[in-house]
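Input.
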Amino acid sequence: MGTDQRPSTRRYIKGELTREQILQAAKKLFMARGYFNTSIYDLFEKAEITKGAFYHHWKTKEELALTILDEMKNAYQKHLFPTLKTEGRARDQIESALRTIRDLNSNPDWVYCRLLATWSAELGTADDPLGKGVQEMRQQMLGFWEELLHRAQEQGDLRKDIAPKELSFLMMSTILGVYIADRNGDCGASRTALETVRKILFA
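Output.
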């Protein structure tokens, strides 16, 4: 079947494969080194591509990073945020969300928690538009946790003497901190840390 493909189809398939190759290399570099410490030439070397292949898909490093940020947003929308719409008590939803984060990070291809942690520490809102987008992603995550924690308080499963907004900031900071510290991808350590968070909340 491959020999029957038109040249335009083959070029399209090759272009898509190259694009994915660049994205995967960029995610790993941005996660390990950060945005500012990763150069275009690092991307050429890591992805094993030519300059022309890169510029065929993106005009700048920032444009590439924004593509990855969009992928990150879509991934969280698919895998984590639907927890808010599930049936049952908020305590169960919080525990389910923590398990989801744990399981996702057990997959070496899932880089978004570590990448969000790295970019959150590195980028400020002044670093537009990427920094602004990262901060918006952080705010969405904070809102997710705040809503679940508020529900758990209202249902009597969580102490009420701490405002859910403050508690969500602590949750978010803890989770991102786990993955900043977990530079070597020690899934065992991160799983233990997330289990500790669960125990602290619902001891």
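The two ends are 60 Å apart (CA to CA).
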